[in-house]
Amino acid sequence: MLGMTLCLLAQQGCGTSEETTQERPTASLVSAKEAVALIASRGNDPSFAILDVRTPDEFGTEHLRNAANIDFNSPHFAEQLGALDTEKAYLVYCGSGVRSAQAAAVMAGHGFTEIYDLKGGLTSLKELDESGGLLVTCGCN
Questions:
Q1: In this predicted structure, what is the pLDDT of residue 68?
Q2: DSSP 8-state assignment for residue 127
Q3: What's the angle, vertex CA 73, arms to CA 72 and CA 76, rounded to 5?
Q4: DSSP-based three-state secondary structure for 48
Q5: Is 33 helix (H, G, I), strand (E, B) or coil?
Q6: Chain centroid to CA 89
Q7: Residue 20: exposure state from Cβ atoms within 10 A (0-12, 13-18, ≥19)
Q8: 99-114 pLDDT tens trace
Q9: Cα separation of 25 and 21, whole Å?
């Protein structure tokens, strides 16, 4: 009897799994080739942005054309994310893919809905982009 009562309470009091489970946005891991195609197709789209999550020094050395820089290791990272439009699509990258994966997870937790994480980071893209057309290399920001 007690077992049946607990089953009934569990079914009525907790709701269905559909009611209690909300899907959380996640990042799509994209290869360098997919990132190049994404930039080619959406690079001029105002609802698309490229986000470099490396340090300002790394960004100043080289970065993707039209990328914005928010340092993942900065204590102000979450605050700076708050200034971004969560409805935009973001291609997120770092040097090797570690920080961008972490940043993408934080972004998803902040309500960003369309996140593309560059697998292998800038290293993988440089191997593909032999012409250098996507990279800005300079000693400037």
A1: 96
A2: H
A3: 80
A4: strand
A5: helix
A6: 9
A7: exposed
A8: 999 999 999 999 999 9
A9: 13
Q: Report pTM.
A: 0.79
* Count of CB atoms situated within 10 Å of the CB of 128: 14
Give per-residue burial for 71-93: e unless 16+ CB within 10 Å, then b: bbeeeebeeebeebeeebbbbbb
Q: Can you read off the two tokens belonging to residue 59? A: 């960004």
In the chain, where does DSSP find H-type helix? 2-13, 17-20, 32-42, 56-61, 77-81, 98-109, 121-128
* Strands across the sheet containing 48-52: 28-30, 114-118, 89-93, 48-52, 67-69
Mean pLDDT in consecutive groups of 10 residues from the start of the chain, 141 residues:
40 42 75 92 95 97 93 96 96 97 96 96 82 64 46
